[in-house]
Specification:
single chain, three-stranded antiparallel beta sheet, two-stranded antiparallel ribbon, about 30% strand
Length: about 140
């Protein structure tokens, strides 16, 4: 009984990468339940929300590159935090191959809260989002 394959397989050719389907469970925010599946724009929108709402390195159920790092922003200059937050958001979101960048990023600072609004550009279209960070 042979243990190794006996066919003549040519592995010297180029490697072709293929994106996996984005089909995922759909989370209904109103009911707090899973009510089916979603794909394409809905799946990316849901992935963006999970990335933005998850504190990076805090929850062991997520991989280390999942989520956004909001730590160490308290007490810093609001201008610096606005620019640093954009960098951290871009780093967190660009892990997903369906996301191509961040556009229309603006922020305001009032009463110790930095409020940022932006558009996450994806291969399926834009996703309007906003985050608030207490500094």
């Amino acid at each position: 009984m042979a243990v190794l394959p006996e066919d003549n397989i040519n592995i010297s050719g180029p490697v072709r990468y293929a994106d996996q389907p984005g089909l995922t469970w759909h989370i209904n925010r109103e009911t707090g339940r899973i009510d089916g599946t979603c794909d394409n724009w809905q799946a990316v929108r849901q992935a963006v929300e999970i990335i933005l709402w998850t504190e990076r390195f805090r929850w062991q159920i997520y991989r280390p590159y999942t989520g956004t790092d909001y730590r160490n922003l308290v007490g810093l200059d609001p201008g610096y935090v606005g620019v640093e937050l954009k960098r951290r958001l871009r780093d967190a979101l660009m892990v997903d191959s369906r996301i191509t960048g961040i556009d229309n990023y603006t922020y305001t600072f009032e009463d110790g809260i930095l409020h940022a609004t932006f558009t996450v550009t994806t291969v399926f279209g834009g996703v309007e989002q906003s985050v608030e960070v207490a500094i």
